[in-house]
Amino acid sequence: AQSVTQLDSHVSVSEGTPVLLRCNYSSSYSPSLFWYVQHPNKGLQLLLKYTSAATLVKGINGFEAEFKKSETSFHLTKPSAHMSDAAEYFCVVSFLTTDSWGKLQFGAGTQVVVTP
Amino acid sequence: ETGVTQSPTHLIKTRGQQVTLRCSSQSGHNTVSWYQQALGQGPQFIFQYYREEENGRGNFPPRFSGLQFPNYSSELNVNALELDDSALYLCASSLLSDEQYFGPGTRLTVT
């Protein structure tokens, strides 16, 4: 079975400190991996995508993620949190099999709170 | 470049009624996917349309149906609405890849 797990439902950080959001996946295939962000009452915005070209992926707004195949992880980080980073973050897996082509499977989400 | 748009933004329906939600793809995209996001949860895949044909379906009953038109816009229809259908419905478009771009969603409330 294929799955994606976000290890923290809530993360609270102070403005200017690093952010770490953890994600693990399980799959028999080589998946595409994404991080999306959702601000309150908004749609989903793509932060970054892992395409197997490089294990360290840089995204928008200073975020980056590292793919570790041995640990089946794809953790999202940002060196310095900004107040505008307060949002819900989703780790997403796409399984390119004959019955799942282009289907995105979302984690449960991590709510990020940034305090001044 | 025009992004993904959805209409309406909000609507309220009564249990047992039918509803149609609409989505316009990002310019140049030929694939549309629909997702249901219940409150406090991650989005769940409903189905995907590619060149007007259903191209994959999630674990949703047949009363959830869809259409894709020649201009690649799409509709999601839900019959016999139930209270649990209350959710944010998200449409996403893509072009020959799994990199999907989402619209702002339609908030459906079933009373």
Structural class determined from secondary elements of chain B: mainly beta
Low-pLDDT stretches of chain A: none
The amount of helix of chain B comes to under 10%
Helical stretch tally of chain A: 0
Mean pLDDT of chain B: 93
- Approximate shape of chain B: globular
The level of helicity of chain A is under 10%
- Helix-strand pattern of chain B, N to C? EEEEEEEEEEE
Give the count of helical stretches of chain B.
0
Instruction: Say what oligomer this is.
Output: heterodimer
Main beta-sheet strand count, sense and barrel state of chain B: 7 strands, mixed
Q: Tell how many strands the DSSP assignment of chain B holds.
A: 11
> What is the ordering of alpha helices and beta strands of chain A?
EEEEEEEEEEEE
Describe this structure in words.
The complex is a heterodimer of chains A (116) and B (111). With 116 residues, chain A is mostly beta strands. Chain A is 0% helix and 53% strand. The radius of gyration of chain A is 14 Å and the shape is globular. The termini of chain A are far apart. The model of chain A has no long low-confidence stretch (mean pLDDT 90). Chain B is mainly β and 111 residues long. Chain B has strands at 5-7, 10-13, 19-24, 31-37, 44-50, 53-57, 64-68, 74-78, 87-94, 101-102, 106-110. In chain B, the strands form two sheets. In chain B, strands 2, 4, 5, 6, 9, 10 and 11 form a seven-stranded mixed sheet that branches. In chain B, strands 1-3-8-7 form a four-stranded antiparallel sheet, with no helix packed on it. Chain B contains no helices and eleven strands. Classes of the chains: A mainly beta (116), B mainly beta (111). The interface between A and B is medium-sized, with 23 and 25 residues.
Describe the structure using short key phrases:
heterodimer; A: 116 residues; mainly beta; 4-stranded antiparallel sheet; 0% helix; B: mainly beta; 11 strands
